[in-house]
Design goal:
The chain is α+β, with helices and mostly antiparallel strands. 41% of the residues lie in helices and 17% in strands. Strand 4 and strand 5 form a beta hairpin. Helix 13 runs parallel beside helix 16 and helix 16 runs antiparallel to helix 17. The protein is globular and about 105 Å long. The protein starts with 6 loop residues before the first strand and ends with a strand. The chain binds one RNA strand of 77 nucleotides through helix 6, helix 12, helix 14, helix 15 and strand 18.
RNA sequence: GGCGAGGUAGCUCAGUUGGUUAGAGCAUCGGAUUCAUAACCCGAAGGUCGGCAGUUCAAAUCUGCUCCUCGCUACCA
């Protein structure tokens, strides 16, 4: 059950440093985490907020190859980019660390050894491909060969990019190492496994029973699905030269699995934080609040004391690691606490389609910041009010504009501006005296009082969207109050009454300045400056009407937000579409041709035109269609994985190109006697190859 | 196909343990107002809560079946 923690350990997913991260990542983990933490700090709770760049794993060397540079250069580049974006967006990490740091290597190795020394890891030896020349074991991605399914010559060991099949390296025909170009040899290799299945009972108790009611349905459901399916041993090491060395003898060339070391990164970051605090030298840490009596054991309080509440903010793609694997690792040591909450968000779509950096359909954090350098809060707000908390949500530029113009500008900014301009006009920028309050005033005071706890309840229940909505309602309350009392009308006749009204309006403004801090930290700062807030106000001072003393003077009013014009939005939509178009053209260069073959080899293939007589879906298959094809010679059954591109109805009667002498193969219970040829376009869509005019079935192609 | 999550107003989304006329914001329409970035404020209209059946005095909420979307997974000759 959710507990009121004595201290809070809050983590936001470590972003993988192989590229930029988009606003979907922000919405998924970072923004809610930051709101939560800022709120806790305002309440003077003992909270630590960590994240950092995840810099290991095969994808880093891969990206290095792609960019024609070194893995180190890749992580330096993207760490710097991510770090900078988070800073500019106001992510108030106590520390944003890096998993390439020494202390992380040590922590991960210690963690591994703890499990190892307790005999909790099993060793298993299996055959893996090895490059004799480069003297390394090859990750799946580093092996290319001919796809056993579509005969594509440059299929990778994990996947064929031509037909999309997921493969294992052993299935490849004529496998070659991408490092040396030589065929790899099979070699025995040993790895250490964490037997997840041993913890099933514990998981059932911990998640399925004790978190049945307080974890989100999506999180709980995913976990249940994994647990019910039965857990298996999972290798915690890899043969790779990029990563954290396995701290055992005879483990050369072996590193910790990136999903082993990444979550441990939260712990390393915590250690690094207190180390820097202790030394007083800050490389990654920021001192957001004072810490006393720090020593090299302090971090343990945040990870090993039962009265610490551990909360992981992540996207739904990370659920299994944060709810199953990492907790098992923590639990198995017998030393660590496990998460109390994992408020995973779903995905945020963009303008009707799934966000994807690789497909170019995304708004990367740095792209937004380049175009809107003065508007971090505007993005925070637009994302906050549309977080995918219970289901996938959607970001559109039009909605972003509406949230900005109709809410931040028209309600929040406008109310502040009204209160300040009126005060400027009638009271020379000084807070007027609060006189006798009437019924309307009393009602506003009562309402105002209710807001902080409403917002707090929403935040503590991880309903950040609702919390943001309450915030805006507080500004609405202010607008409504001014509309009801109409101080501009009373100015000529009853200035003291105007003073009372504006005093209250200013108190509401001051409350907004504090209460909006978790959501809109830059706005909060600006507003506090405008109101000349001297002392630091915390959450407990909110809900009151004594935040500003009568006579307190403040600066010239400025506008908090500005409208965003249609043209700006149209440009963004245009830019987005252009980026996608460009990516599609760039991303998929035409495949280089396969090795030369002789005429004889070619003539072995018997390719003919056939006519589809019957077409139907294959039961229980999403991709397969089953055809009866007239080949001129006979009528035969052919199966083809094209159901996502063609309907059976439209296929009937069509002429198709058919490889007729391909060895028959049984698929989903039917024997397929041939292969229908298609052309895969850049967008992945398949097209049929057809003669330009109708020809007799069985016509040979040569 | 298996598993998981969703399908609630034109749009984006809330709806706690089943309980009076199903909510919010935006968009639309009408009114009021001019202190304010033509903003604010008030009001109206708008939904047979994906469909069917069942449990119940009572179902958006529970059960079964079914359709659709998304994610993981299998199938891709």
């Amino acid at each position: 059950m959710d507990k009121e923690g004595k201290r809070y350990m809050v983590t936001a997913a470590l972003p993988y440093a192989n590229g930029p991260k988009h606003i979907g990542h922000l919405a998924g983990a970072y923004i809610p985490a930051d709101v939560y933490v800022r709120y806790l700090r305002l309440n003077n709770r003992d909270v630590l907020f960590v994240s950092g760049s995840d810099e290991h794993g095969t994808a880093i060397p891969n990206q290095a190859l792609k960019e024609n540079t070194t893995p180190q250069a890749i992580i330096d580049k993207y760490d710097a980019l991510l770090r900078d974006c988070f800073e500019k967006l106001g992510m108030s990490f106590d520390i944003y660390h890096r998993t390439s740091e020494k202390i992380h290597h040590e922590t991960s190795q210690e963690f591994f050894l703890t499990l190892y020394n307790k005999g909790l890891l099993t060793e298993e030896t299996s055959e893996q491909y090895y490059d004799d020349e480069a003297k390394v074991f090859l990750a799946d991605r580093y092996i290319v060969g001919t796809c056993p399914k579509c005969s594509f010559a440059k299929a990778y060991g994990d996947q064929c990019e031509n037909c999309g099949s997921s493969l294992s390296p052993r299935e490849l025909i004529n496998p070659r190492s991408t490092l040396s170009g030589k065929p790899p040899v099979l070699k025995l290799t040993k790895h250490w496994y964490l037997p997840l299945q041993n913890y099933e009972d514990w998981l059932k108790q911990w998640i399925l029973e004790s978190h049945k009611n307080d974890w989100r349905p999506n999180v709980y459901g995913q976990c249940k699905s994994w647990i019910d399916a039965g857990l298996q041993p999972r290798a915690m090491t890899r043969d790779l030269d990029w990563g954290i060395k396995v701290p055992l003898p005879n483990a050369e060339g072996k590193v910790l699995y990136v999903w082993f070391d990444a979550p441990v990164g939260y712990i390393s970051a915590t250690r690094a934080f207190f180390k820097e605090i202790e030394k007083g030298s800050f490389k990654y840490a920021k001192q957001n609040r004072p810490f006393q009596h720090v020593n090299n054991e302090t971090w343990r309080k945040y990870w090993q004391r039962k009265d610490t509440k551990l909360v992981h903010f992540i996207g739904k793609d990370n659920i299994v690691f944060h709810c199953i694997i990492f907790p098992i690792m923590l639990h198995a040591t017998g030393e660590y606490i496990v998460p109390d909450q994992v408020p995973a968000n779903e995905f945020m779509n963009l303008e009707g389609d799934k966000m994807s950096t690789s497909r170019g359909w995304s708004i990367e954090m740095h792209e937004y910041l380049e175009d809107f350098p003065t508007k971090p809060d505007e993005l925070r707000y637009a994302l906050l009010t549309n977080l995918p908390e219970t289901k996938d949500s959607e970001f559109t530029w039009k909605d972003f504009q509406a949230k900005n113009n109709n809410e931040l500008v028209a309600i929040f900014g406008n109310f502040i501006n009204r209160a300040l301009v009126l005060t400027q006009k009638y009271f020379d920028n000084r807070v007027p005296e609060l006189g006798v309050m009437n019924e309307i005033d009393q009602r506003v005071v009562t309402e105002l009082k209710s807001f902080p706890s409403r917002i707090a309840d929403a935040i503590e229940g991880y309903h950040f969207r609702e919390a943001a909505a309450h915030l805006m309602d507080l500004a609405r309350l202010g607008n409504k109050y001014l509309a009801e009392t109409e101080p501009w009308k009373l100015a000529k006749t009853d200035l003291p009454r105007v003073g009372t009204i504006l005093n209250l309006a200013l108190q509401v403004s001051a409350n907004l300045a504090i209460v909006c801090e978790p959501f809109l930290p830059f706005t909060s700062k600006k507003l506090k400056e405008m109101l000349s807030f001297s002392q630091a106000m915390d959450w407990r001072s909110t809900g009151e009407i004594n935040l500003l003393k009568a006579g307190h003077g403040f600066a010239e009013p400025r506008l908090l937000f500005e409208k965003i014009e249609d043209l700006v939005i149209e440009n963004q939509v245009y830019k987005l579409n252009e980026k996608k178009r460009k990516m599609e053209l760039d991303a998929q260069p035409v495949e280089p041709s396969k090795p030369e073959i002789s005429f004889d080899e070619f003539s072995k293939m018997d390719i003919r035109v056939g006519k589809i007589l019957k077409a139907e879906r294959v039961e229980k298959s999403k991709k397969l269609l089953k055809f009866q094809v007239d080949t001129g010679m006979d009528t035969r059954t052919v199966l083809s994985g094209i159901a996502e591109h063609f309907t059976p109805e439209e296929m009937v009667g069509k002429q198709v190109t058919l490889l007729v002498n391909l060895a028959p193969r049984k698929i989903m219970g039917f024997e397929s006697q041939g292969m229908i040829l298609t052309a895969a376009d850049k967008d992945g869509k398949l097209r049929l190859l057809q003669p330009s005019d109708v020809v007799a079935p069985g016509s040979k192609i040569s």
